[in-house]
Specification:
single chain, alpha/beta, 8 helices, five-stranded parallel sheet
């Protein structure tokens, strides 16, 4: 559902925080990214944390520390990182053309707010159409992403729908924000402790995913994995009416940094979905925000999900990554 702040709520950030909480609680089901989340208050400079399917921190393609969302730029100059030989043993660039494109993850990959997995505005479907038209005419599209999924759901629930078989695989995984969604209204201290507690399980789940596709008895022709940093719906800016704290931004920068390290270790490509989104989130028209750009368009459909223009940008970043893989 879309959220619109009243005049009173714009004057009183606490009112909109409560309104957001009430709105998020009105659709508690498996596809709701905040189903069953706690409703406590927030401290540390924020009316609440921020995350969800898209996350809110990032890994910049231009390098830098985790505090600024930095990570080394990848070989495709499009925010993608990967090993020299690539996942599945295929050379980076000129990789074996895929027979299957398998999509795993949460509501961003499931495109549940822009017509679903087969919708014309679905970024994952756009990528499939592009790869099929450009590199692999016989490509098959298999989207197993589910709204509300956390990282642990990918190996425990989504992989069971993936059938092993011959043919090279293009694996696209977009997941991570929901792992921190339960801290959206918690204090900075609780969010930090929760992040530190949950991170080992997140990384373990990723390792299970890689182990599944690394099994040559299941996928004899190998695969190429595309991971993604998470964009920030709030442009790394603490501003009304959300007032998300800098500490929660930092936690998600760290989260994306962990994804970058994992991609490097596994020879996967990491698409930078964080940097291009800055200045197009909820605070895109707030001049005092650090990524404000005059005339920029907003890319948010609701509190968490991108609109059609946001999905178009996700696709454009993935396009750079697959061009680097298959040229």
């Amino acid at each position: 559902m879309k959220l619109k702040a009243s005049t009173a709520s714009r004057r009183h950030p606490r009112i909109i925080a409560l309104a957001l909480l009430a709105s998020l609680g009105c659709a508690a089901n498996a596809s709701d990214p905040f189903a069953g989340q706690p409703t406590g208050g927030s401290s540390g400079g924020g009316a609440g944390g921020t995350t969800g399917p898209s996350g809110m921190g990032g890994t910049a393609a231009t390098g830098g520390s985790s505090a600024t969302g930095g990570a080394p730029a990848g070989p495709d100059a499009g925010g993608s990182t990967g090993g020299a030989t690539g996942t599945g043993g295929a050379p980076a660039g000129g990789a074996a053309k895929p027979a299957r494109m398998i999509v795993l993850g949460d509501s961003i990959a499931a495109c549940q707010n822009v017509g679903g997995k087969m919708g014309a505005d679905c970024s994952a479907r756009k990528l499939y159409d592009y790869v099929k038209a450009t590199y692999a005419p016989a490509l098959v599209y298999e989207n197993q992403a589910v709204g509300g999924a956390v990282t642990a759901d990918v190996p425990s629930r989504q992989l069971e729908a993936v059938k092993p078989g011959p043919g090279a695989v293009l694996l696209l995984v977009y997941v991570g924000g929901n792992d921190l969604a339960k801290y959206i209204f918690s204090s900075d201290a609780a969010a930090t402790k929760g992040y530190e507690t949950d991170l080992p399980g997140v990384l373990a789940a990723w390792n299970q995913v890689f182990a599944f596709f690394d099994d040559k008895s299941k996928f004899p022709d190998g695969y190429r994995a595309v991971m993604n940093s998470q964009y920030n719906p709030f442009d790394d800016c603490t501003a009304v009416p959300y007032n998300v704290s800098a500490q929660k931004f930092e936690l998600l920068h760290q989260f994306n940094g962990e994804l970058a390290k994992l991609a490097q270790a596994k020879g996967a490509s990491l698409t930078d979905q964080y940097t291009p989104f800055l200045g197009h989130g909820h605070h895109y028209n707030v001049m005092r925000c650090p990524h404000f750009m005059a005339g920029a368009a907003g890319w948010m459909s609701d509190l968490i999900h991108p609109n059609a223009a946001g999905h178009e940008d996700l696709f454009q970043q993935w396009k750079k990554t697959v061009d680097a893989l298959y040229h």
